[in-house]
Amino acid sequence: MRHRSILWLMVFLIIKTLYTQPPPPTNPHIENVITEISSANIKATVEKLVSFGTRHSLSDTSSETKGIGAARRWIKSEFERYAKKSIGRMKVEFQEFLAPGSARVPYPAKIVNVIATLQPSNLIPTKSVPSSNRILIVSAHYDSRASNPLDSVSQAPGANDDGSGTALVLELARVFSKYEFDATIMFVAFAGEEQGLLGSRHFAAAAKEQGWHIEAVFNNDIVGNIHSGDGTIESTYVRLFSEAYSPIDTGTTFRLRNLLGLENDGSSRGLARYIKEIGERYVPNFGVKLIYRRDRFLRGGDHLPFHEQGFAAVRFTEAKENFDHQHQDVRTKSGISYGDLPEYMNFEYCAAIARINAATLASLAFAPVPPSNVRIMTRSLEYTTTLQWNKNAESDLAGYNILYRETTSPTWQHTLFTQDTAITLQVSKDDYFFGIQAVDRAGNASLYTIPLPLR
Ligand SMILES: [Zn+2]
């Protein structure tokens, strides 16, 4: 009898220890996803996109082999090929609209985005994951341009801008279609980017109007070159652009941000910080360089319409750009070769950026929802910091990571794991910023929720 109770006590202690341990830092399913990303596939897609001659948004749409019409039908057919592996969970469609005349659209023109939507596993009734309408987007633009933005007939290969991003999106769709996630993932090829972000602006406005819960937008634009025009070579990191706050964060949000000193903790900046942390964990020997700016100096991309609607959205761009191979007619002048051709690209580099995207997108797609109602207690002046939050509902929840950093640190410096829904840290809230993420038993961590004061 006594032996039996000792045995039960031991079993209880083992189980308790197992469940109070922090979950593993990486998830083997995500490692598998990354391993499947192929630079050869990315190269083949870029070469196919270039074969359409031009993908200018106002180019021919009737030919089967040339122009943007043939290009979008081919992208759609590729998505449909991957969708066959998804057991009915991936839906492929065109999103069409009429763009009114503007500086870069001389006459109203039909613009067509190509979208593949992968539904979460919770639509398959055998899994006990709570229902979720979280949407994650990975995007690029498939349109291209020559030197003159209105030239819709000249050769405009757009291998790197943005065949590279489009190939990355297709490669992720191919790999992800075989897996089951806990969030909806949309793989989007926008048109009209070079005519003024037309496709993404339409998409983001429609999403806002329909109340979609878009948790993150990963935009990839110009992600396949390592040779700068200044002679330097850089293949060890990617730049990740994020703006701290959306222009719609005004009024109370603006005042609270200033009151709390949270000017570096808006949702797009928080997403960038998450991508750096998770991406570098899964893809060793490759870096994510945070750039505290909405985009390159005075330039823009398809993440901006989302950021401006209040969604967390960031842009990946190669470390070093080469302006001889962007927005240039294909030609040789004074011994210099111009034009955006595949021969100037590095597909291993593009694949590394695809792996960063894949790791962080999969991590978010497997993760629980971010903790809600996260508060800093402010009953009186204290030397410590007490945080509390609501319990998550997921059945596979392991607990929460409490993250904190000094006010001048770009990334989180300290992590504590807890299964509770409150914690007191022996540090002063005057000197640190805090964030809390929910973590499941496989180690997938949500985005961070920044605590607000409880008064
Ligand atoms: Zn571009």
Protein model, in words:
This protein has 455 residues and is α/β, with parallel strands linked by helices. It has ten helices and 17 strands. It has an eight-stranded mixed sheet with strand order 1-2-4-3-5-8-6-7, with helices on both faces. A four-stranded mixed sheet has the order 15-12-11-17, with no helix packed on it. It is globular, with a radius of gyration of 23 Å. Mean pLDDT is 94; it is low at 123-131. Bound molecules: zinc ion. Residues 141, 161-162, 193, 221-222 line the site of zinc ion.
How many domain regions? 2
Q: Per CATH, what is the topology of the largest domain?
A: Aminopeptidase
Overall shape: it is globular
The CATH superfamily name of the largest domain is Zn peptidases
Overall mean pLDDT: 94
| Portion in strands | 15-25%
| N- and C-termini, Cα separation | 54 Å
Judged by helices, strands and strand pairing, the structural class is: alpha/beta
Gyration radius over CA? 23 Å
Number of extended strands: 17
- Portion in helices: 25-40%
- In the sheet with the most strands, the strands line up as 1-2-4-3-5-8-6-7
Q: Please, how many helices? A: 10
- The CATH architecture of the largest domain can be given as 3-Layer(aba) Sandwich
CATH class of the largest domain: Alpha Beta
The kinds of small molecule bound in this structure are: zinc ion
- Secondary-structure element string: HHHHEEEHEHEEHHEHEEEHEEEEEEE
Unreliable stretches (pLDDT < 50, length at least 5) are 123-131
Query: Could you describe the largest sheet, including whether it forms a barrel?
Result: 8 strands, mixed
